[in-house]
Amino acid sequence: MQTFPCAFCGPRPETEFHFAGDLGNLRPEGFLEVSAETWSSYLFAHNNPRGESREIWKHLTCMEVFTMTRDTLSHIVNSSTALLPEGDA
Amino acid sequence: MTRHYSLLSLIKEGFANQKGWQPAWRSPEPKARYDAIVIGGGGHGLATAYYLAKNHGITNVAIIEKGWLGGGNTGRNTTTIRSNYFYPESAALYERSLQLYEGLSKDLNYNVMFSQRGVLTMVHSKGEMEIAARLVNAMQINGIDSDLLDIDACKKIVPLYDFSPKSRFQVLGGVWQGRAGVARHDAVAWGYARAADRLGVDIIQNCEVTEFMIEGGRCRGVMTSKGPIRSDKVSLSVAGNSSQMAAKAGFRLPVISYTLQACVSEPVKPILDTVVLAPATATYVSQSDKGELVIGGGIDRVPSYAQRGNLPALEVVLSGLMEMFPTVGQLKLMRQWGGVVDVTPDSSPIMGESPLPGLYLNCGWGTGGFKSIPVGGEMTAYMMANGKHHDLTRPFDLERFRTGRLIDEAAGSGIAH
């Protein structure tokens, strides 16, 4: 079994983690002004890279979310960083 | 040279010391220009080229495959074919595929060993029984053969299954599609390849598409490792690599690539003459003609392009198998493998012209790519030949992710893919 490094708990089994999407996929501001294309892109489209991928993951046991950079082909994890509230970063 | 496969040609070649058989397909060098280019030499791509030639008379076609023919998911699945879907749009699409499979061996003059041995989906609780009745009703209204079975009928179909009330996931009944079945996966690829080649299609292996030629906002061809190849009609049948090709064409897809694993046991005497699926564990199993148990389940939960899979998903699948058939616990596993599947948010495929005009999409089949090879090919060929949607494909356009009219089969038919 592969271990993923939780930014808070350290290395834990992969089954404790949940993939939560691409890093930087920010919710569009201005609810009514946002076009259908932008909503669709935000909600459904994925970068889905082959190779280095910058992603958001959730550690289901401690319920914290964090960013992880890993290789989708070799499964090697390069870094994991806590997601801090804006202003604290 | 002997081209046609028949009893007569078998006898003839028997007397000729088997020296007259023609190779099943040629390995030509690519021409500078084709009427249509199909990217991806798996089942869907090969079928697309075949139906372009057969149904639409477009024979100046190239299939461009970066590896070898049928070496991706076409050679990595569990060969199950069924059409018991919930929504009318899906039922029509997959039923067309099943119908094409029913006549495929004759159509291709190649035995794809389609065996309509039925698929039995177990039901584990009273609540699920009610949902199963609703599913079966919906399927019957859609014109799909589907039956709700009680536990006694299930026992007759799979006597080896653990039906005891003490089992971890007790069975109360099942959903049965008798026309579903399995086929020989490689034969489907080889049969389409041979039939397409005979109609004049060029199958170009070991040739990778590196970028698209975009002129005047349209796709005008592809750059490949064997040089530029021009065509005003290009289609994409590359399953798990769809996002990579879309990125080269300048757009993103609602697709995540995951590994789907499967494995086979050592061969044993006939013990199972149908396909059995237990939704509680998402494990399904059938027995191949060689006697191996062919075992599959849900996808790995980690987005991945590695064609191997991780252990946790395999553990879930095999422990599920042990719940279903405790007797098979002593069997050894012979082989395990993984394929990269293109999963969409609604578990339905994406078909239609892409945001880059002249480039047609046939992707998002996720874990259901093998069963849909004939219809995926037939419909992509139709779209390429006519420059518009077929009635069957219109609901599956990429547009649905903008309008919000999803066809959510993951929720609809309760299938874990």
CATH architecture of the largest domain in chain B: 3-Layer(bba) Sandwich
Oligomer: heterodimer
Poorly predicted regions of chain A = none
Task: Give the helix level of chain A as a range of percent.
Answer: under 10%
Largest sheet of chain B: 8 strands, mixed
Describe what you observe in this structure.
The complex is a heterodimer of chains A (89) and B (417). Chain A is mainly β and 89 residues long. Chain A has one domain (3-82): 2-Layer Sandwich (Folate-binding fold), CATH 3.30.2270.10. Chain A is 9% helix and 40% strand. Chain A has 1 helix and 6 strands, in the order E-E-E-H-E-E-E. The mean pLDDT of chain A is 92. Chain B has 417 residues and is of the alpha/beta class. Chain B folds into 2 domains: 20-83 and 85-110 and 185-254 and 346-412, FAD/NAD(P)-binding domain (3-Layer(bba) Sandwich); 119-183 and 257-343, 2-Layer Sandwich (D-Amino Acid Oxidase, Chain A, domain 2). Chain B has helices at 7-15, 43-56, 88-102, 104-108, 126-141, 151-157, 185-198, 242-249, 311-324, 373-386, 400-403, 409-412; strands at 36-39, 61-64, 80-81, 119-123, 147-150, 173-177, 181-182, 202-204, 209-215, 218-224, 227-230, 234-236, 256-265, 275-278, 283-287, 293-303, 333-343, 350-353, 359-363. In chain B, helix 2 (43-56) packs across helix 10 (373-386). Chains A and B meet through helix 1 of A and strand 16 and helix 11 of B.
